[in-house]
Amino acid sequence: MKTHVARWMLCCGLIFSAPALAQTGATKEEAPGAEVTPHESSAQDTRNTSDEQFPVSGEPQSGEDYLREQHEAWEVRCIRGEEGEQEICQLYVLIYDSDGASVAEFFLTALPPGGKAAAGVDVATPLGTLLTKQVLLKIDSGKTNRYPFTWCNQLACYARFGLTSTQVDAMKRGSTAQITVFSIQAPEEPIQLSLSLNGFTAAWNAVAPK
After folding, report:
1. In the chain, what are the domains?
2. pLDDT digits over 143-171, tens only?
3. Taking the C-alpha atoms of 154, 156, 157 and 160 in order, what is their torsion angle to the nearest 10 degrees?
4. Residues 6 or more apart in contact with residue 205 via CB below 8 angstroms
5. Residues near 170 by beta carbon (within 8 Å), at least 6 away in sequence
6. Predicted model pTM
7. How far, in Å, CA of 14 to CA of 189, rounded?
8. Which residues 6+ apart lie within 8 Å of 127 measured at CB?
């Protein structure tokens, strides 16, 4: 599997070590039991997520993206609002394979209470992802959920879906989330990526609606 993953990344010319994922032109996508509107889940769709855009020192200016906090692998990335305005924040994780190559990105936005979805998620994978196989997500030994890809641009392909409060609670209690995707290079060989949930609760509490 390592060989075809490397070939997949090489053929697509996409390495996420300094990601710049402009997620524009998104459409509404529903997941089983959870609904996310474009407005709710794309507050930062046009953000450039490279390290240069997220200074960790100095005072960010209004409208500037910055890294506000980090809890284990989970980053809290925000856009500084005007004076008196609330910041727009989301959680971000860069996901690596077993060889240490960056393969996918995970964006999570806390949504207002009262809806079917407690969180909106975007998973970004390289071009060359086999879209018909969709994205599989499993938290620890729980149920495997399958989500369709929503769109691709010149950088990546994106699956957008909602997580219920039950799923978010499972992430708080859990230790590992497993994300599975497939490449066109080897469609019968799943690429399984581990996402540590250490630090997730603290990161979630930093962005969850009060």
Report:
1. 2-207 (2.60.40.1880)
2. 999 999 999 999 999 999 999 999 999 99
3. -110
4. none
5. 139, 140, 142
6. 0.75
7. 20
8. 12, 13, 14, 152, 155, 156, 157
